[in-house]
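Chain X:
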Amino acid sequence: GTTQENLDKLIQNVQIESDSDMIRNWKYLDVPVISSFVAQQHKYARRDRSKEETFQLSRWTPVIKDVMEDAIENKLDSKDWPYCSRCPPTWNGSGAV
């Protein structure tokens, strides 16, 4: 989603005022056209990757890379990721499960 102000500017710049109601009605199809204040506040904390090599055709790194790395290291916040289970404790070598 975006802010109301940015959506209005976009509609005006691309000159589709006649279709603006159709775009705004996407919210009834659960398409997040205008984001809520809560959604704007909550962003996933990104890692500093300024010294890493970027993808060949892009200047940015997808958020999913940060999420997957945090999941592997058990650093995901259980409040934000309630359905991600923790890794089992370190295996002690016994055959018991």
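Chain Y:
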Amino acid sequence: MKRVLFATIIVLTGLFPACDDDMVYDHFETLPEGTWKWTDPREFKLQVEDTLSNHRIYVQLRHGTDYPYRNLYMFVHVKGPDGQNICDTVNIELAAADGRWIGKGSGKHRELRLLYRRQTRFAQAGPYVFTLEQGMRKPALPVTDIGIRIERENP
């Protein structure tokens, strides 16, 4: 029985890295005290080499079920190697109209991944900085982690 379990674990371990071959970047920042303050933007720095492939860019967040609203506004700033800065306002729906949370999770915690941009081709190789900034009217919100994920799109 132990040999079968060990063999199963070895096989599954070998399979999982292949699942994320298209993942370019995936990082979460844990927010102090489980609170995202509007005075606390978070930066995500990455080095882009691939200027030929299209990419999907996701904004990710984790929040508690004590979050007081159905949505979250944030500002997404992207600064490329040439210094050009792009800013978007993003509205993330966290709960359905009937109050059910949209993200995955159990108990008091939820995680949500929102497709921010698709078919994005980076114009230049070099350093990029993604900055996420809380855009609600409340100075602090019960958001525990925020992040960026970038995946290469297959043709």
